[in-house]
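Lecture 7 notes: from sequence to structure.
We start with the chain below.
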Amino acid sequence: MTTAATFEELLSAVRGPAGARTVIVTGAGVSLASGIPTFRGPDPGAVWANDVTEKGTRAYFKREPHESWLWYLKRFELARGAKPNDAHRALVAWEQWQARHQRGFLLVTQNVDTLHEQAGSRALVKVHGSLDQARCTRLHCKQGPPRGTVPMAEVDFGPLFADPSPETVPRCSLCKSKLRPHVLWFDELYSEHDSYQFDHVLRSAKQATLVVFIGTSFSVGVTDAVLMRAMLADAHIYSIDPSGVSHSPKIRVVAAQAELVLPPLVAALSD
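Predicted structure tokens for the same chain:
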């Protein structure tokens, strides 16, 4: 059974019937053209090869909180200088087209960069957190889980940079517990923080008529969860992936880079 899909086939699915409900899931591949390395991709800067499964964990933060912060800040600094590419902008236009036609739309990103927001996406869930936020490590602190965060811009990293040690890790201004990046670590659950909105993502996937995965490796829990519910809903399922690899017979793959295929796709939508 072939899983390859054409541009025209995807366009027809996007136009769909009146009342169609779309869920889009983006991964690191959508930000690669903006200069942000992926985790598992073939690009030379892919982070996966740099022992991310050890360092991207709560266990590592507990052992070496200062080293954990320095590792994340290095990656965050690269992402902060990035700008949205044509894929991000096209997704904004897609969302606006859906709204004009009173159709459901949800963009779920695994990325912690802020490129979707910078581009103008509004119907957005950042299911793995965000690089522009930190949070307290103490449960139920106003600046900690399950709801609180702290703007990263308000965190003082001066002592940490001057003398990296567990003692110089930034502290919560309210309870003096350690602050941590507001990201979902590999040894954590989506229920760790309300802002991940995992239940909302699952409900939307169950109600979707079209699900499109863009630039994701299908190696994290949210992709499996969305895919399973989309299949149960008998939704049309597509992936935009230059590798052309399908991870399920149910997924139709458009073998193209997102920043090249999304702008003409959205431009072809007619009012």
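Points to note: The chain is about 35% helix and 15% strand. The chain has a mean pLDDT of 92.
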